[in-house]
Amino acid sequence: MEKIDIKSLTIEEMTEEFASMGHPAFRARQVYQWLHEKLAARFEEMTNISKEMQKKLSERYYLISLKTVDIRISKIDGTRKYLFALEDGNIIESVWMKYKHGNSVCISSQAGCRMGCRFCASTLDGLARNLLPSEMLDQIYQIQKETGERVSNVVVMGSGEPLDNYDNLVQFIRLLSSEGGLHISQRNITVSTCGIVPGIRRLAKEGLTITLALSLHAPNDRVRENLMPIAKTYKLAEVLDACHEYFVQTGRRLTFEYSLVKGVNDTPREAKDLGTLLKGQQGHVNLIPVNPIKERNFKQSDQASIQTFKILLEKTGINVTIRREMGRDINGACGQLRKSFLESQN
Predict the structure, then answer these.
(1) Rounded distance between C-alpha atoms, residue 114 and residue 128, angstroms
(2) Are 140 and 105 contacting, i.e. CB atoms less than 8 angstroms apart?
């Protein structure tokens, strides 16, 4: 009999599982608490459960626990970047960032990525595989144990396209926000997508209250197609229509991510066009000074261009923020540390 991934089960699923083995509901709640509140890495750590029960659990279930390969700590702002090894040897990365409003963790949803965005290191080696809900959760659990500090905000914005791993993503969100675990409010969970339209429309109907962030990066299809291959499949009009549907269904304002690349998408004309494009959309624009990767010749826009872009966009009535750069000295951008680690192993 193939073992079951116990950390990916909801409390309802676990209760049904335990009932099928003749165990009472309170036993399922005990184990669930050990996994998602006390963050146990092994069944043997569950001290209020008998040795015999621990043995039965280990025979029927496997318990995901990521191995920490490396931790980099920024000397600039204290940001921590983690490399984790999965049980099959794949490597993923996560980032812990400390803000005044609380601690935020950026996690990966896939090992690698197949979307091909040209400014992102995550996609350079393609997609290895999707992550399980337990593997997404355990990035947060391992970081919380290592730092000794509670995580209050989670962004699914690391390596991978979350909506390309849809079912596992939704299960992860439900587990992370459920009672009996970390119980992080769905309003403090952000999912970033490059614009997979069917996934956005499907997510709008899930009854979740998470924030959706769209990787926009261009004010028109021509520039966007140059940066993001997915734009050849889903045109901006279709993507933004799906985003509007998400707002209507959930009442949650969107975030439009816009990486500023010098000489590519950062001109005053493009700022004005972006304002026109997003007029009537419920959300705000997050300007991101692109973090250059050595495999591409993209350069970060200079500060004067960034400020001009922001001012022009605001004049069109759009709410704008500039993302604070975190972990620049520790390969903080998506996929950079994983890529350098994999290269060192060859």
Answers:
(1) 9
(2) yes
CA distances from 13 to 5, 28, 300 (A): 11, 9, 47
CA gyration radius, the chain: 21
Distance CA 31, CA 64 (A): 14
**The pair of three-digit structure tokens given for residue 135, joined into one six-digit string:** 């593997």
C-beta separation of 67 from 85 below 8 A? yes
Distance CA 250, CA 244 (A): 10
Helix ranges (DSSP H) in 251-295: 268-277
Question: What H or E segment, with its residue span, contains residue 270?
Answer: helix 268-277
Per-residue pLDDT of the chain (346 residues; tens, 9 = 90+): 799 999 999 999 999 999 998 999 999 999 999 999 999 999 999 999 999 999 999 999 999 999 999 999 999 889 999 999 999 999 999 999 999 889 999 999 999 999 988 888 778 889 999 999 999 999 999 999 999 999 999 999 999 999 999 999 999 999 999 988 899 999 999 999 999 999 999 999 999 999 999 999 999 999 999 999 999 999 999 999 999 999 999 999 999 999 999 999 999 999 999 999 999 899 999 999 887 655 556 788 899 999 999 999 999 999 999 987 766 666 655 555 655 555 555 5
Instruction: Provide the sign of the torsion angle of the four alpha carbons 50, 52, 57, 63, taken in this order.
Output: positive
Is the pTM here over 0.90, yes or no? yes
CA 130 to chain centre: 13
Number of residues written out for the chain: 346
Residues with catalytic annotation?
A: 93, 334
User: Beta 80-85 vs 67-73: how paired, if at all?
Assistant: antiparallel
- CA 39 – CA 142 distance, rounded (Å): 8
Which of the 8 DSSP states describes residue 153? E
Six-digit token string for 99: 């803000």
Sign of the alpha-carbon dihedral angle for 273, 275, 280, 285: positive
The residue type found at 30 is Q
Which amino acid, 313?
Answer: L
- H-run or E-run covering 30: helix 25-36
